[in-house]
TrEMBL record:
GO CC annotation: mitochondrial inner membrane
Name the UniProt record assigns to this protein: Cytochrome P450, family 27, subfamily C, polypeptide 1
Gene: CYP27C1
Domain of life per record: Eukaryota
Keywords per UniProt: Heme, Iron, Membrane, Metal-binding, Monooxygenase, Oxidoreductase
A Gene Ontology molecular function term of the record: oxidoreductase activity, acting on paired donors, with incorporation or reduction of molecular oxygen
Cofactor names: heme
Cross-referenced Pfam families: p450
């Protein structure tokens, strides 16, 4: 199990001490800029050269024509209702984004009943909005999440918290998992899960007549991602990749599936007014049921580790451990906050990673020449049969390019939200404080002006030719940007890089005749619209049999 160097020996007194970290509200403001650069993996110099400083309304001269929201184009409520409820727009949010961008331009408004959303579908405007964020940006209205937590007496985690609560937790977690070198300590844990993934591929292949096909690879990657992220968050293995999955894990998977399969329900759970719940009870009931299942699972695992630590300390033993141990011992967050954070991180970390892995393998299968290039790079860099670690990934730019390019073509979060905390002028429009913004990442990722031949799969477009070369950043920011960006980015990347390296080392990944052209659909996240079936053919065997 990975060990954090600075807390290998901790006394019981320290363990019982109260929250240490109450002054971070101020500190984080100064960390804000570097956190933003860090999240994008860019240097300070690059960040400074990025375009578009935020313009405040008072800075705009009287001569400048500032338009109001009334002047902004966009579909009306009726056409939105038809699009979403009649034509199942919830499954095509990414396509609607592109259509609206074409029809209404780079910034447009949509009305959903009383709610107004301003969509920003331009790289520079997205940069402008995100670079001007304050210390605690707000992503979206999380009232339904908060209501559930209040009802059950639970805390909020990073996704659902706002303001000072969020800032305090973010500051704690940021120091533990935001930098690549922080998560490098998890290499061995993740590699243990990759071993099981490979064994599972062997086992699944034998169940098919061609002895090569794995049906619905997303099911496999879902289990891999869950096992991987839980190994880091709970410091234990769940057995997701075993033939017989333990009952508790199965229950958790069911709760997670309920959360996503009832995505529309959960949208409605937030949208349906409380007074309508007695008449339409199902969305809210399912919403609560899935959260109950998710929390229950986390509480069991956190409590198990807590008891182990207590027992070790009472026996006077040294306590060693990873992320959870650190959180439980330092108590920078309360135990309730720890429950909430591991629950929300697991929720955020499974489908995102598994869809990206499924798309990456699908794209590799469709582009054998790219797969060949990446395999060549791996062979050149690693000894035959070597197991790659986090350190090796820095010498494998094409593997990093593969993940970036996959997320450009299929950003799991095709759009992201912000509620403006100041009055802004964006694209010539005055946008009052408190407006809901939708940042259209899917559309900017596929814009010709941001990426040449945008529909082509070219992992090498992400390789810098020299130190002065800069690959565009804000056109594709699949993990978000800035202080509220994805906290699990480095964990996700580690899991994806190590799995993909090993899969490419071991197998030729090929399309199965059962797989047609797979289109994306939106189901909360951007996911494959149909199951992806792939063949995993041994490279060694293949090499022996080839002339
Ligand atoms: C391919 C994998 C992933 C992608 C593409 C992804 C993407 C994102 C995006 C776009 C956001 C919103 C950022 C913003 O609003 O600016 C986000 C937030 C978040 N992600 Fe991820 N994510 C991934 C994996 C993970 C993993 C593995 C974890 C946990 C281990 C995780 C935990 C979170 C959390 C807790 C937040 C909320 C952060 C906050 O509000 O402070 N994500 N993610």
């Amino acid at each position: 199990m990975a060990v954090f160097n600075n807390f290998t020996k901790i006394c019981w007194k320290n363990f019982q001490s109260d929250q240490l970290n109450k002054q971070l509200f101020y500190v984080v403001r100064s960390l804000h800029k570097s956190a933003a650069s860090e999240a994008l993996g860019i240097s300070a110099t690059e960040e400074e050269t990025m375009p578009n400083r935020m313009i405040k309304p008072e800075e705009v001269s009287e001569k400048t024509q500032i338009k109001t929201l009334n002047d902004m184009p966009g579909p009306n409520t009726l056409s939105n209702l038809i699009e979403f409820f009649w034509k199942d727009g919830f499954g095509r949010i990414h396509e609607i984004q592109m259509e609206h961008r074409k029809k209404y331009g780079k910034i447009f408004k949509s009305r959903f009943g009383p709610q107004l959303v301003v969509s920003v579908a331009d790289r520079d405007m997205v940069a402008q909005v995100l670079r001007a964020e304050g210390v605690a940006p707000q992503r979206a209205n999380m009232d339904s999440w908060k209501e559930y937590r209040d009802m059950r007496g639970r805390a909020t985690g990073l996704i659902s918290a706002e303001g000072e609560d969020w800032l305090k937790m973010r500051s704690v977690l940021r120091q533990l998992i935001m930098r690549p070198r922080d998560v490098a300590v998890f290499s061995d844990d993740v590699n243990g899960v990759v071993d099981d993934l490979i064994q599972r591929v062997y086992s699944l292949r034998t169940q098919q007549p061609d002895r090569a096909t794995v049906l619905n690879v997303n099911d496999l990657f879902f289990k891999y991602a869950m096992e991987g992220v839980a190994a880091i968050l709970y410091e234990c293995r769940l057995g997701c990749l075993e033939n017989n999955i333990p009952q508790k894990t199965q229950d958790y998977i069911a709760a997670l599936n309920l959360m996503f399969s009832s995505f529309k329900m959960t949208m409605y759970a937030g949208a349906i007014p409380k007074w309508l719940r007695p008449i339409i009870p199902k969305p809210w009931e399912e919403f609560c049921l899935s959260w109950d299942g998710l929390f229950k699972f986390s509480i069991v695992h956190v409590n198990k580790r807590l008891s182990e630590i207590k027992a070790q300390l009472e026996r006077g033993e040294e306590v060693k451990g990873g992320l959870l141990t650190h959180m439980l011992i330092t108590r920078e967050m309360s135990v309730e906050e720890i429950y909430a954070n591991v629950t929300e991180m697991l929720l955020a970390g499974v489908d995102t990673t598994s869809f990206t892995l499924s798309w990456a393998c699908y794209l590799l299968a469709r582009h054998p020449h790219v797969q060949h290039q990446i395999h060549k790079e791996i062979k050149k860099t690693l000894e035959p049969g070597a197991v790659a670690t986090a350190e090796d990934v820095s010498n494998l730019p094409l593997i990093r390019g593969l993940v970036k390019e996959t997320l450009r073509l299929f950003p799991v979060l095709p759009g992201n939200g912000r509620i403006t905390q100041d009055d802004l002028v964006v694209g010539g429009y005055f946008i009052p404080k408190g407006t809901q913004l939708a940042l259209c990442h899917y559309s900017t990722s596929l814009e010709e002006e941001n990426f040449l031949e945008p529909l082509d799969f070219q992992p090498d477009r992400w390789i810098r030719k020299d130190t002065t070369d800069r690959v565009d950043n804000f056109g594709s920011i699949p993990f978000g940007y800035g202080i509220r960006s994805c906290i699990g980015r480095r964990i996700a990347e580690l899991e994806m890089h190590l799995a993909l390296i090993r899969l490419i080392q071991k197998f030729h990944i090929c399309l199965s005749p059962l797989t047609a052209d797979i289109k994306a659909k939106t189901h909360g996240l951007l996911c494959p619209g149909a199951p992806i079936h792939l063949q995993f053919i041994d490279r060694e065997v293949d090499a022996l049999s080839s002339p």
